[in-house]
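Hey team,

Filing this mostly as a record. A colleague (T.K.) asked me to run one chain through the structure pipeline before their review meeting, and I want the input and output archived in the tracker in case anyone asks later how it was produced. No errors, nothing strange. Just documentation.

Input sequence:
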Amino acid sequence: MNSSNPVAPLRVGVVGLGFAGETHLKAYLQIPGVEVVALAGLEEAKLRQLGTTYGVPHLYRDWQDLMARDDLDIVSVCTPNYLHAPIAIAALDLGRHVLCEKPLARTAAEAEAIVAAARRNRRVLQVAFNHRMRGDVQVLKRYIAAGSLGRIYHAKASWMRRYGIPGMGSWFTSKEMAGGGPLIDLGVHVLDLALYLLDEPEVVSVSAATYAELGPRGRGARVGDDKMQVTTAFEVEDLATAFLRLRDGGTILLEASWATYSSAGDDFGVALYGSEGGAEIKVRNYNWEDTLRIFTDVAGVPAEISPRLSKGEGHLGIVRDFIAAIRSGDWVAHDGSGGLYRARIIDACYASALRGREVALSEIVAPSQIAATLEETGA
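Output structure:
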């Protein structure tokens, strides 16, 4: 393998044929010194089509066959959530660097096992939180770093849909395959934005509730979805809300839905409340222009700033950073621990909703659970 040699091309295998898999393919092809040599996925027609479109020479139906190659430096995991842990751990144990789609895993215990594999094998593990590479997020990040908002004491992070259950009866609505509904699917994205913008504050406890009011009655499906049917039941939530307490006294309000009777389209964003100013990103149907507002005072008068924005790089920026981390040689600093932290918070949210009480993060993934998980996976 070539990952220790910064001059030799890095050879990539991508597992997954959906939107994420194709997006990873496109991004790798734009990075000099990177070659996508293998692609795996179950849908044979789609596999051939993507292989032809992106010039991938080796195609496999089973991910295990792709993994058996001895010339891969990188594996991109772009599969349903239940496959993230087995594929990522297998790749890391074979000495490959791993770029995994969000969430890192269905549970904190699975995420812990993946991170343990990255640390044990001294390989880069990164989770593809692509929305932090948006132009509006990057502008706001720099503005916060300059101290212009002062102490940020409260944040709101939400992703709300009027309708948009991603495949009724598909793996998305299977608790076993997905791990949860919009909280783990969409909520983890905006949770990541809030934590990223607030410079990774420590969450000490969460109080959450989940609802399944529309999905079980067949309402709220995204029009035109043709994902493979795996269940006849709607086994996850269609709306979740959570209140997070931070070690520094701050708070975050998190909300995510696939379907609501509301004014939402497919809308996400964050709002930050600081001692010296505030800010709000409102994204409607994935737009990127005129999405950021900054609230301040000018000469003692309330004022609003609307920065000029670029679209940003999205997945391309994530892949570029991933490749840069590999080439830097500082692999210990990129072990996926941020993805694990988010998995622990999501776990705490689901535990709080189930138990009907506030849950401390210290209750999630006890050492005995971690040890049992590592033993079961052979990590």
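Quick notes for T.K.: Confidence is low (pLDDT under 50) at residues 366-375. The radius of gyration is 21 Å.
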